[in-house]
């Protein structure tokens, strides 16, 4: 019995010992698997975040030229505007009439006094003939009145002598004097009537001359507004079917550029200072120019001041209403009234985020793979370079790229500039 009990005890499984030995092994695999998963997720997140970082290029701030070392021709301000003609006119007839002949086309050069068009002159010619006939009639009337006055003059003189001798009565003398005065009045009336007829003749002649439309100055026809057979009038009488102008004439020697400059920068522009401009149609062509005048009034709605810029040389490629960009230049060092750049640094223009209507801007300074947002004071712009007067030191590395995606302290990827 004892042997059986001992045998059964030996065959009994000890359940408390096996879990105690297997539990540490299972926990180790769970921990190892969890750590591996966390490491994989971390690496994936790092790769994703790195790929999502904005990519910028680095540019180094260079010392800017100052005072005596600055060269002439540095841009102190850029502005956009349009080519305009100071002298242009809509050519029209002085009278209302039907256009009979047209002698111009767009692009034709005309000189002052050249015939541009002719109106139907039949009515004006008839009126002129009528006025000439009226003058002839008035001249004949005047001759008749003078002859009658001359005939009655000796009769009146004789009557005066006879009245003095007592041959005729005073009543007869008075009647003779009345007849004499009447003839003299007829002469005066005939003379006045002749003057009126001659004035009417001059008006009729001018009306006939006004049927010929001439160029008021030398220039180029830019638009043709009427065709033969249409009614033209300086007053647009007759409704929408009446043309108020025949053509537009532009004096190409009067072309200039008008630009609107922000009030914050107008102090950089002075009359007589040099400038260069580029037409939008010819972006690689730099045209020498100069400031004609700063118009002494501001536009309150746009907070700008108008500046007139003239061309130093003329060229047939320059046309009215062309878009243009003007660079106002500094004078040579030591010149009177020259606009010199203040000390600072030069950066690529793409590295500066300018504030609209202000002389300040934003740059992002690179610190390894992070950026620092800085507000800077802007100076002159020269081509693709921007002078920064304050806020950046020489040697600082700044971000170049899409600055709208950056923020203070943001991480970036820095790519080499090609």
Which secondary structure elements does this structure contain, and how are they paired or packed?
Blueprint (H helix, E strand, L loop, with lengths): L1 H10 L5 H36 L2 E6 L1 E2 L11 E11 L2 E4 L5 E6 L6 E2 L4 E5 L2 H44 L4 H40 L2 E3 L4 E6 L6 E2 L9 E2 L3 E4 L4 E8 L11 E6 L2 E18 L4 E8 L11 E7 L15 E4 L4 E2 L5 E8 L2 E13 L2 E6 L6 E4 L12 E3 L3
Parallel strand pairs: 1-24, 10-11
Antiparallel strand pairs: 1-23, 2-18, 3-13, 3-17, 4-12, 5-7, 5-10, 6-9, 7-8, 9-12, 13-16, 14-15, 14-17, 15-16, 18-22, 19-20, 20-21, 21-22
Helix pairs in contact: 3-4
Q: Please count the beta strands (DSSP E, at least 2 residues each).
A: 24
Radius of gyration: 49 Å
Strand content: 25-35%
Q: What order do the SSEs take from the amino end to the carboxyl end, as H and E?
A: HHEEEEEEEHHEEEEEEEEEEEEEEEEE
Q: Describe the sheet with the most strands.
A: 6 strands, antiparallel
Order the strands across the largest sheet as they lie in space.
2-18-22-21-20-19
CATH architecture identity of the domain at 75-86 and 251-329: Beta Barrel
Overall shape: rod-shaped
Number of helices: 4
Q: What is the CATH C level class of the domain at 75-86 and 251-329, in words? A: Mainly Beta
Low-confidence stretches: 67-72, 333-341
Binned, the helix content reads 25-40%
The H-level CATH homologous superfamily of the domain at 75-86 and 251-329, spelled out, is: Efflux pump adaptor protein, beta barrel domain
How far apart the termini lie comes to 98 Å
Helix and strand content put the structural class at alpha+beta
What fold name stands as the CATH topology of the domain at 75-86 and 251-329? Elongation Factor Tu (Ef-tu), domain 3
- Average pLDDT score: 81
